[in-house]
C-alpha cells in the first residue's frame, strides 16, 4: 500500500487555499531544527487516529526529511481516516530544492540520529587510533560500538540515542 506523491508546488497551492493539512511525522528534535512553515508536528511514534478528527475534509499530506520514512509507513498513515492522503515528493529536502521557505532554528541541536552517528564514529575512530598508537586492546572499544550499532538496528532500541537525548542541549527540544 502506498501514498500518491504530491509536488511541493502543488502542496504550497493547496496550503494557501486551505484545502490541505501538512503533517510532519518526524520527531520533535528534528522538527525543532527545521520544518516547513505551517506544518503540524505529529511524530510517527505518537500518532493517534483522533489527532485529525476536525480535518478529515482536507487532503492530508505527510512529510519527513526525505519522504522515505513516510513512504515506509504509508499503510499506517492511510488508516487515519482522511479522504485524500499524499506524501510530499522528496519530503522537506524536496520542498527546499523547489526553493520554498522553511523555518530554520540554528539554536536547535542537529537531529539525534546524526548525533549518534557522530558519537559512534568518533568512538570507533578514536579506539582504532589508540589501538595502533597505544595498545591493541583498544580495538575492543571499536568492537563494542559496532556490536551496539548492530543491536540497535536489529532491535530498534539504541542505548546511545537514549543517553544523548538526556544531554542538556537535547532535552529542551525533545517535547513538541
Number of strands: 7
Helix content: 40-55%
Strand content: 5-15%
Structural class by helix and strand composition: alpha/beta
CATH architectural type of the largest domain: 3-Layer(aba) Sandwich
Please state the average pLDDT score.
89
- The CATH class of the largest domain is Alpha Beta
Please give the largest β-sheet: 5 strands, parallel
Textual characterization of the structure:
There is one protein chain. With 176 residues, the protein is an alpha/beta fold. The protein folds into two domains: 100 residues, Rhodanese-like domain (Oxidized Rhodanese, domain 1, 3-Layer(aba) Sandwich); 61 residues, no CATH class. Helices cover 47% and strands 14% of the residues. It contains nine helices and seven strands, in the order βαβαβββααβαβαααα. Strands 1-6-5-2-4 form a five-stranded parallel beta sheet. A two-stranded antiparallel ribbon has the order 3-7. It is elongated.
Question: Which short descriptors sum up this protein?
Answer:
176 residues; alpha/beta; Oxidized Rhodanese, domain 1; two-stranded antiparallel sheet; 9 helices; 5-stranded parallel sheet
Secondary-structure blueprint of this entry?
Blueprint: E1 5-6, H1 8-16, E2 20-24, H2 28-33, E3 34-36, E4 40-41, E5 59-63, H3 68-72, H4 74-78, E6 85-88, H5 91-97, E7 102-104, H6 112-133, H7 139-155, H8 159-165, H9 168-171
Parallel strand pairs: 1-6, 2-4, 2-5, 5-6
Antiparallel strand pairs: 3-7
Helix pairs in contact: 6-7, 6-8
What is the gist of this entry?
The chain is built from nine helices and seven strands; from the N terminus they run E-H-E-H-E-E-E-H-H-E-H-E-H-H-H-H.
